[in-house]
Amino acid sequence: MRKWVLSGILASEETYLSHLEALLLPMKPLKAAATTSQPVLTSQQIETIFFKVPELYEIHKEFYDGLAPRVQQWGHQQQVGDLFQKLASQLGVYRAFVDNYGVAMETAEKCCQANAQFAEISENLRARSNKDAKDQTTKNNLETLLYKPVDRVTRSTLVLHDLLKHTPPGHPDHLLLQDALRISQNFLSSINEEITPRRQSMTVKKGEHRQLLKDSFMVELVEGARKLRHVFLFTDLLLCTKLKKQSGGKTQQYDCKWYIPLTDLSFQMVDESEAAPSIPLVLDEELDAMKIKISQIKSDIQREKRANKGSKAIERLRKKLSEQESLLLLMSPSMAFRVHNRNGKSYTFLISSDYERAEWRENIREQQKKCFKSFSLTSVELQMLTNSCVKLQTVHSIPLTINKTKITKEDGESTDRIMGKGQVQLDPQALQERDWQRTVIAMNGIEVKLSVKFTSREFSLKRMPSRKQTGVFGVKIAVVTKRERSKVPYIVRQCVEEIERRGMEEVGIYRVSGVATDIQALKAAFDVNNKDVSVMMSEMDVNAIAGTLKLYFRELPEPLFTDEFYPNFAEGIALSDPVAKESCMLNLLLSLPEANLLTFLFLLDHLKRVAEKETVNKMSLHNLATVFGPTLLRPSEKESKLPANPGQPISMTDSWSLEVMSQVQVLLYFLQLEAIPAPDSKRQSILFSTEV
Questions:
Q1: Of 73, 243, 530, 579, which is most buried by a Cβ count within 10 Å?
Q2: At which of 196, 219, 248 does a domain end?
Q3: Taking every annotated instance into account, which residue ranges of this chain make up the domain PH (predicted)?
Q4: Do 157 and 260 sit in the same domain of this protein?
């Protein structure tokens, strides 16, 4: 872990040096031109804009040149603490840079306005992508690059925390790194007051500093009309946006309607304002008619698919379905959720449930405890923030909860309708009982009798090796691939192939459960190597096939990510520095046994293709990570983390829940990576396996 963290720091330093080089590149010709009769900038302007950049480059070049050979010649007792201590002792140069930063930005802006040639230079600065790709560069502007040192110094303690976490107390580096951390923390506390406002306004391209906490489609009431909005809650503000209409294959874009800093936001209860707008109600009959229409369109789509009609007809129906779903979302909510800006402006949302409204209030209030200063964004900063929402959004499709749905047959006859709802209160006492407990739920004049029994996690989730090693379920993946002479188990390839053939547009694929008897039948067929398994699969519901694939990974005697590496993945995903995290996670992944790695890469590519159909199947990368994370990572041997007293309620914040969150985050991290640099030979093996 120490080596991987340091490898990440090296990669981060390399990127930072390329950014400083990009700043230095125009500096030399600008200085030379300053002594001619036609200068672009004066010597004083150049000195102000590029103040201390050469010195920062020399400091970090020396650090990089010292660290690289030590990481390459790695040993457990290798020492690097002296390099970090020296780097920390030179933070005074950053003090000078930060003090001058505001003046530098102001001077650069004025020079761009006064000189078109300098404005052109400022917008087209090129930084090397990496050390080995000398011809590959990325375009940056002057403002972005001048902010890099500010961002760098404010994150200097993160890498030291990561490194200290994996340096044993008895190691010679430990004291040196602690000293470097102390110097860095003292330095940061002295300049944080000046840097924080700038960090809040510069987001936000990747959400590194201003983080997205929650987003959702909501209905805003504007002058009596219902308007569909996408609302984003960040760590310091609430942003309300409108999704622009897409045309000609253009990428998704948002328009900002308004924003409120959390320090200026308050909640306006329904009876607090006489001027509160009245909510136009929609009759239940109208809502029912919309739901029936949606059901009819869905039936039409399925009929077109079965008839193998052209994709144009299906696309038209899908467009009509999307319009009807949007209309239903607009018309359904009727519960007011009002937010008020300190400047006097109020906004009203309509929400479907009191639970959802309470959740938004709770999330905002919790975050307000951490916000102390008001601020305002410039038009450029607001545009940057709005643009970032396209990548940051977690909700990609309109959420529809169609309760009281009449499911209509083609002849228009209503077959099903929800008549009532009820719930059973789980008694902590039931956790101590081993027998079935009978209970009755009363709802809308109907009594539902059922039996429930509690099974603790240690039994329900424990991985159990199969006693029958000739099958595939419960058998180590390396044993199966060796027996089959394949790179990826036959069961994985078959299930993926069938799902990609007819299940990619199935709503809730992998989330919706299949019929248990079908899954068990497929399990038995795969275990005995039944030659008719492909015929069986073609006749079964696709959710049963998805369930069989999940069951296979869940019943592996050791998780796909292995027991040996599981703690390392959990530590890697918790690293603070993003470059160190990427280096560590990729190194760990490529250290997996070959059968595990190739199977995971095969599955990963498949899940990414599933997520590409998210607008239809409603399965985002996050949804898929939630389903598969624990399945692929949960260790085989794990002691129960239930409370000592089984009568105590199980808290959702217990360590087991945190572990599950970590498992989801690990898989989500790999799903979101654009490319995983697996060795070519292994990639070819995967392709070969797929073709076979």
A1: 579
A2: 196
A3: 211-369
A4: no
pLDDT band, residue 558 (cuts 50/70/90): very high
Angstrom distance (rounded) from CA 312 to CA 322 = 15
Same domain? For 229 and 319 the reply is no
Instruction: Evaluate whether 253 touches 244 at the Cβ level (below 8 Å).
Output: yes
Residue type, 597: L
Cα distance between residue 450 and residue 440, in whole Å: 6
Q: Among 264, 255, 154, which Cα is nearest to 198's?
A: 154
Closest CA to 53 of 9, 81, 19: 19
Four-residue CA torsion sign, 678, 682, 688, 691: negative
Q: What letter would DSSP give residue 248?
A: T
Q: Is residue 127 located within the same domain as residue 224?
A: no
**What pLDDT is stored for residue 569 in this prediction?**
93
Whether the predicted pLDDT of 239 surpasses 50: yes
pLDDT of 205 > 70? The answer is: no
In a domain, 651, yes or no: no
Exposure string over 427-447, b if 16+ CB within 10 A, otherwise e: eeeebeeeeeeeeeeeeeeee
CA 56 to CA 17: how far, in whole Å? Answer: 9
Q: Helix, strand, or coil here: 53?
A: helix
| pLDDT exceeds cutoff 90 at 548 | yes
Residue 553 has pLDDT above 90, yes or no: yes
188 and 235 housed in the same domain: no
Count: domains in the chain = 5
pLDDT class of 456 with cuts at 50, 70, 90: confident
Give residue-wise pLDDT tens across range 342-383.
888 899 998 877 767 888 998 899 888 888 788 888 877 888
Q: Is residue 225 located within the same domain as residue 340?
A: yes
Choose from 76-85, 391-400, 462-471 the range with maximum mean pLDDT.
76-85
Range of the structural domain that residue 436 is part of: 429-458
Q: Which amino acid is at 69?
A: P
CATH number of the CATH domain containing 552: 1.10.555.10
Residue 150 has pLDDT above 80, yes or no: yes
Instruction: Say which CATH number the domain at 214 has.
Output: 2.30.29.30
pLDDT at residue 561 above 90?
yes
Assess if residue 231 is contained within a domain: yes
Does 143 lie in the same domain as 180? yes
Same domain? 242 vs 305: no
Instruction: Please give the model's pTM, rounded to 2 decimal places.
Output: 0.58
- Decide which of 399, 414, 446 is a domain's last residue: 399
**Cα–Cα distance for residue pair 92/204, rounded to 1 Å:** 27
**Gap between the Cα atoms of 117 and 105, Å rounded:** 17
| Domain-located, residue 595 | yes
Torsion of CA 69, 74, 79, 81, to 10 degrees: 70
Say if residues 481 and 489 touch (Cβ distance below 8 Å): yes
Q: 593 and 579 in one domain?
A: yes
